Structures are given as C-alpha cells and as structure tokens.
Amino acid sequence: MEYIESMLKAFQNTMLLAAVTAWGSAELLKMGIRFLMGKRGFSELWGSGGMPSAHSATVGALAMSVGLRYGFDGAGFAIAAVLALVVMYDASGVRKEAGKHAVAINELKSKEGNAHKKHKESIGHTKPQVITGAAWGGLVAMLFYFIR
C-alpha cells in the first residue's frame, strides 16, 4: 500500500507535471500550426519534427522548474540544464541530419522505382523550432511555479 501511495505522489510533483504539460501542449500547438498550414491529420501529433519542438519544451520546462524550485546554482539545475542542452542539440543536429539523409535515400529509391516504403524525413528540428520549444517549456514551468 505504501508503494502505491508513494507512486501517487508523483502527481503532486510540480516539476514533473510542468514537463509533461509542456510536452503535451507543445504537441497540441504543433498539430494546430500544421492544421492552419493545411496539413490535417492526427498522425503528426506524436511524430517528431515540427514547430515547436516538444522535446525542447519538455526538457526546457524540467530545467526551468528545477531552477525555480531549488535555485539555479545547484547540482539539480546543472544536471537538468545539461540534459536539456544535449536533447536540444540532438534534435537540431543529429536528428536533423538524419532527416536530410532520409530525403536523399527516398529520392534515390524513387529514381530506382523502389519507393513503396519511404523513410520518415521530418525527424529533426530547425533551430527556431528548438528555441521556440524551449521558450514554451520555460513559460509553462513559470506558470506552474507561480500558480502553485
């Protein structure tokens, strides 16, 4: 019974709630933006890529939440900030390059007449998408901190 009570306390953790809310709301924003651009469908809701970066929003909210709660000069914030930087670098660097490779592979397969299974091309983020996601996450974290 204590185990279940302990697990339920996770729902009272404002840092976790801010990060999860930032992720979910960024995904909804992304879907809304794509809808306004004429790209309808729920398939993009859980996909990677697009504006804003939900990955950046999640780790941005986590880092900001930890900093606001425990101070920006502590070990907790340092860990969360480094994690955020690694995730954001990966989103705009490594995964963006993998998306470029997918475009090239798809073009080659198309020329060979073997385009029945395309590789996903939108798996990374542009720098503005990452920055917007991180800013969104920071805003969500501040709302959680100042409201609670």
Q: What do these coordinates show?
A:
By secondary structure, this protein is mainly α. It has a domain at 13-41 and 49-95 and 125-147. It is 70% helix and 0% strand. The chain has six helices and no strands. The protein has helices at 2-8, 14-36, 54-70, 75-92, 94-111, 127-147. Helix 2 packs across helix 6 (127-147) and helix 4 (75-92) runs parallel beside helix 5 (94-111).
Brief account:
By secondary structure, the protein is mainly alpha-helical. It is 70% helix and 0% strand. The protein has helices at residues 2-8, 14-36, 54-70, 75-92, 94-111, 127-147.
Tally of DSSP helical segments: 6
- Estimate what percentage of residues fall within beta strands: under 5%
Helix-strand pattern: HHHHHH
Give the beta-strand count.
0
Q: Distance N terminus to C terminus?
A: 28 Å
| Sheet of most strands | none
Q: Name the overall outline.
A: elongated
User: SS-based structural class?
Assistant: mainly alpha
**What number is the mean pLDDT?**
82
Helix residue percentage: over 70%
What is Rg? 18 Å
Poorly predicted ranges: none
